[in-house]
């Protein structure tokens, strides 16, 4: 939600709550207080209790209670209650007290001053209790929001790190491959230059957007595979199935690419007899299903730091971007590595 709209909605909710509180305050006094006094009584009660609520929530608690200065907080609360008790006494001394009215219920001789002190302290203590609970919940929500914001920033930094590490390495390899094609005057040279241009556009510009069309990510994967094939002496056993894919679906960028890159880094695709790679991307309504499986060499290839960060980055992004609406399974056997990812994009 837009921050400005959230503030307006929150302010409107507070106004409604205090309006309801004023109506409840009106119920009892209207039966015995003089009508000319009722409006002033309700207004006074609203102003006093609302002030106690917000002073405690947004000043006393953050300044003292959350700052581990509980002694000062107790003193500040006591002074606040005493201050508003005096305000109440002065108010009633100026405009008259409703208990002096003939319609008022008997006071049993308790006296105006003691009764009014008890009334004020009881009301303020109740409001302090409510505001303290509200303050703790607000503080907890603020801490959680900061944690989410920090996590999001860390993920963005990781993404930028991944790009700074992967893009130059891939670019040099791609340029070398294109140079080799140009030397032999291959007809594929213009096509591969165009593919490289599209890939760089995606990683440098499109991936900065919050969402991209699924076909853009699919195009990147297909182009990436085409460049990897150029390095191999023989035609690799690679199957890519995107026939059941809705290319117009909007998703967060670079969620599938790290797993495809890992398949080439740590698999044995260059083994024409035993190496293989299978990729399937399909959509079922708002559901995106991505699966990649590849063969593994007899001797494991050590994972590089960037590859590990890329996979972990995707996992964290899924948890934050699609909470409760994504599934990621990574499994390794003796001769196969597989990734299964499912995302429900309906509410995003």
Written account of the structure:
The two termini are 12 Å apart. Strand 6 and strand 7 form a beta hairpin. This protein folds into two domains: 3-145, no CATH class; 187-344, Histidine kinase-like ATPase, C-terminal domain (Heat Shock Protein 90). It is elongated. Helices cover 61% and strands 12% of the residues. The model is unreliable at 102-112 (pLDDT under 50). By secondary structure, it is an alpha+beta fold.
Could you list some keywords that capture this structure?
348 residues; Heat Shock Protein 90; alpha+beta; 2 domains; single chain
Oligomer: single chain
Q: For the record, what CATH class of the largest domain applies? A: Alpha Beta
Task: List the uncertain runs.
Answer: 102-112
By helix and strand content, what is the structural category? alpha+beta
Calculate Rg over CA atoms: 34 Å
Name the CATH superfamily classification of the largest domain.
Histidine kinase-like ATPase, C-terminal domain
Widest β-sheet, arrangement of strands: 2-4-5-7-6
User: Kindly state the mean pLDDT as a whole number?
Assistant: 79
Strand content: 5-15%
SSE blueprint and pairings:
Elements: H1 3-27, H2 35-65, H3 70-95, H4 112-183, H5 189-204, E1 212-213, H6 214-230, E2 238-241, E3 250-251, H7 257-266, E4 277-284, E5 287-295, H8 305-321, E6 326-332, E7 336-344
Parallel strand pairs: 2-4
Antiparallel strand pairs: 1-3, 4-5, 5-7, 6-7
Helix pairs in contact: 1-2, 2-3, 2-4, 3-4, 4-5, 4-8, 5-6, 6-7, 7-8
Summarize the structure.
This protein is an alpha+beta fold and 348 residues long.
């Amino acid at each position: 939600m837009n921050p400005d709209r959230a503030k307006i909605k929150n302010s409107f909710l507070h106004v409604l709550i205090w309006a309801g509180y004023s109506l409840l305050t009106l119920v009892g006094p209207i039966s015995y207080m003089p009508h000319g006094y009722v409006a002033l009584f309700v207004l006074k009660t609203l102003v006093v209790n609302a002030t106690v609520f917000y002073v405690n929530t947004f000043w006393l608690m953050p300044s003292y209670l959350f700052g581990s200065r509980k002694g000062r907080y107790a003193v500040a609360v006591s002074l606040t209650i005493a201050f508003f008790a005096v305000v109440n006494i002065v108010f009633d001394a100026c405009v008259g007290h409703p208990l002096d009215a003939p319609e008022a219920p008997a006071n049993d001789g308790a006296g105006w001053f003691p009764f009014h002190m008890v009334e004020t302290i009881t009301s303020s203590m109740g409001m302090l209790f409510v505001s303290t609970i509200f303050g703790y919940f607000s503080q907890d929500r603020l801490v959680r929001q900061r944690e989410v914001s920090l996590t999001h920033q860390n993920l963005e930094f990781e993404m930028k790190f991944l790009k700074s590490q992967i893009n130059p390495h891939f670019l040099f390899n791609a340029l070398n491959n294109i140079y080799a094609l140009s030397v032999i005057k291959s007809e594929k040279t213009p096509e591969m230059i165009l593919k490289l241009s599209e890939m760089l556009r995606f990683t440098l510009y499109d991936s900065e957007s919050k969402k991209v069309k699924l076909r853009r990510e699919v195009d990147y994967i297909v182009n990436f595979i085409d460049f990897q094939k150029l390095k191999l002496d023989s035609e690799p056993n690679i199957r890519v199935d995107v026939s059941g894919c809705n290319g117009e679906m909007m998703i967060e960028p670079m969620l599938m690419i790290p797993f495809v890159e890992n398949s080439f880094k740590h698999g044995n695709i260059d083994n024409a007899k035993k190496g293989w790679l299978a990729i399937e991307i399909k959509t079922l309504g708002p559901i995106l299903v991505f699966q990649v499986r590849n063969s593994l060499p007899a001797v494991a290839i050590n994972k590089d730091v960037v590859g590990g960060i890329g996979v972990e980055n995707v996992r964290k992004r899924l948890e934050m971007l699609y909470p409760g609406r994504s599934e990621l399974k990574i499994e390794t056997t003796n001769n196969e590595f597989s990734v299964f990812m499912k995302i429900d994009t309906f509410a995003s």
